[in-house]
Design goal:
homodimer, mainly alpha, Multidrug-efflux Transporter Regulator, Chain: A, Domain 2, two-stranded antiparallel sheet, 5 helices, flat, DNA-binding
DNA sequence: TGCAAGTATGCAGTATACTACATACTTTAA
DNA sequence: TTAAAGTATGTAGTATACTGCATACTTGCA
């Protein structure tokens, strides 16, 4: 069980950002009832997994709301199995679209590089 | 040569957003000197190419500044050849990183789906 | 023991990327 | 010809995602 500072150090996400994510409902920790002197919050490995997922998803342009959709059904059982699958399928489709876009961008940039190397300038 | 409305219709980008992009220096049109009755701005195919690139890059989480770095050297010759290559290489590296992240996300989400289908709940 | 460092909470401020609104002029089509 | 639609410009407002500051209490270490 980690405190917020450790969470921050291990993920590289600033504490302020972590608090913002927690307030946004992306993850949550627990207080230890046996500790009465303070109200520190503790986080488990589940939280670390979620944070690593959040970092990946953010890096490829998913919004916090889109990420929350997925992370939510990670551990919740309230929605139906089909509803869960639907959320995941929607995100999988977006991932495939983003991959196609990355491939197209890569091709375009590589072409641009070749053209620069050939001193012809414009990559169109 | 297209007017802004046509640009918007062909790309699906709202006019307000296009004006914002143009003001941000992502692209620019030209006024026709032979037309004196108005100051309408016309855009060529070069602009359309830039817009298509902007759309792809935005979809995979690049910022407008990162996009501008690339789009700028599309048609400018002021910076050295090596500086141009450097900008492109930086973006190519980002693209590879994003692709790896998409692949990891996809794997994770697919695993999650399998686990839901198996009614075991948690995909870890 | 005392003080720096860590934690919780709340609220204000910032950066990025739009989005809407107001004004004024131009073009187009009934 | 006149009203609707298009264009230019500027300014203000909004949404998302942080980021910083202030306050107050707790922990850990010299």
């Amino acid at each position: 069980m980690k405190l917020i500072n450790q969470l921050s150090k291990e993920t590289g996400i600033p504490i302020g950002t972590l608090r913002f994510y927690e307030k946004s409902g992306l993850f949550s920790g627990k207080r230890k009832t046996e500790v009465t002197s303070n109200n520190y919050v503790y986080y488990d490995e589940e939280v670390m997994e979620k944070l690593r997922f959040i970092q990946m998803a953010k890096a490829v342009g998913f919004t916090l709301v889109e990420i929350k959709d997925v992370v939510d059904l990670w551990y919740k059982k309230e929605i139906t199995q089909q509803a869960q699958i639907n959320v995941l399928d929607r995100r999988l489709k977006q991932i495939d679209e983003k991959m196609a876009e990355l491939k197209a961008m890569k091709k375009q940039i590589e072409l641009c590089k070749v053209n620069i190397a050939n001193r012809r300038g414009n990559p169109g």
